[in-house]
Structures are given as C-alpha cells and as structure tokens.
Amino acid sequence: VRKMVHAGQEVVIVGGAHALHGHEKLAIAVSKALRGHSLQETKTDGRFHVHTKTYLDGAVLKE
C-alpha cells in the first residue's frame, strides 16, 4: 500500500468482520461479485500446480 500512496497522502486501513447471514441482500450482492483467477503451471519435475485467488469485483458489487 505504501508504494501506491502519493506524497502528502495518508492511508487508513480499518479491519473488521460482519456476518452476512442477517443481511440477505448484501449476502446476495457479495455472492454475485465473487470472482476467481487461476494460474496453472507445470514444474520442471512434471508436477502440475494450480494457484487460485478469489476477489470481489467492485464494478459488479456497485450494481
């Protein structure tokens, strides 16, 4: 994060958790906005590895 901040800017990171089971519409929106990106690679010894990162698509979440 430090590399993305311009001179004179301040970053405040607020952490927390919120249960979605009590907020049906919010839970549906988060479910629809979940995306995954997979990277497949073959190691030199022939083993195959798949790395997956899950993220929220902000554009879909805003809809």
Automatic annotation (TrEMBL):
The lineage of its organism: Eukaryota, Viridiplantae, Streptophyta, Embryophyta, Tracheophyta. PANTHER family: TRANSMEMBRANE PROTEIN, TRANSMEMBRANE PROTEIN-RELATED. It comes from the Eukaryota. This is Uncharacterized protein.
